[in-house]
Specification:
- The chain is built from four helices and ten strands.
- The chain is an alpha+beta fold.
- It has one domain: Alpha-Beta Plaits (2-Layer Sandwich), CATH 3.30.70.
- Its EC number is 2.7.6.3.
Length: 160
């Protein structure tokens, strides 16, 4: 089993319900166990600013899936939630799932880079990741708690 951290986000429809349903979908993936989930956060949009705020979280799973198998499974969960990938980056979405990090795997190809190359820029990822693994060192980026301390988290709030 390999530990994997997965980012979850939604800002269309009932975003909170979409993220909670995605946790359940992750737990039902073959060869995968949901080990932990972060708090939910309401965060301002990133990239394209003219859109609703996001509900974001991070899941920790143990999986026998390879990185590409896990990515394909996440894309299938997104599609089942109504996500249409039309090439627009950082726009509104019913569900967005990203593999952030898989233990001991550093890779980059046309489909997937691990660890995710933009973690250090994103409070909406680092806040929930910090809930689960503040001391985690991301190869080439640093320790989660240090990366979070360097970011402005204004506008981000933990949801009850």
């Amino acid at each position: 089993m390999t530990a994997a951290f997965i980012a979850l986000g939604s800002n269309l429809g009932d975003a909170r319900a979409q993220v909670l349903a995605a946790f359940d979908a992750l737990a039902s993936l073959p060869g995968t166990q949901l080990r932990a989930r972060s708090q939910l956060y309401l965060t301002p949009p990133w990239g394209v600013l003219d859109q609703p705020s996001f509900v974001n979280a991070v899941a920790l799973v143990d999986t026998t899936l390879t990185p590409h198998e896990l990515l394909d499974a996440l894309l299938a969960i997104e599609r089942a939630a109504g996500r249409v990938r039309d090439g627009e980056r950082w726009g509104p979405r019913t569900l967005d799932l990203d593999v952030l990090h898989m233990d001991a795997i550093v890779m980059s190809d046309e489909r997937l880079s691990l660890p995710h190359p933009r973690i250090r820029e994103r409070a909406f990822v680092l806040l929930p990741l910090h809930d689960l693994a503040a001391e985690l060192v991301l190869p080439g980026q640093g320790r989660v708690k240090d990366l979070l301390a360097a970011l402005d988290v204004a506008g981000c709030e933990r949801l009850p």
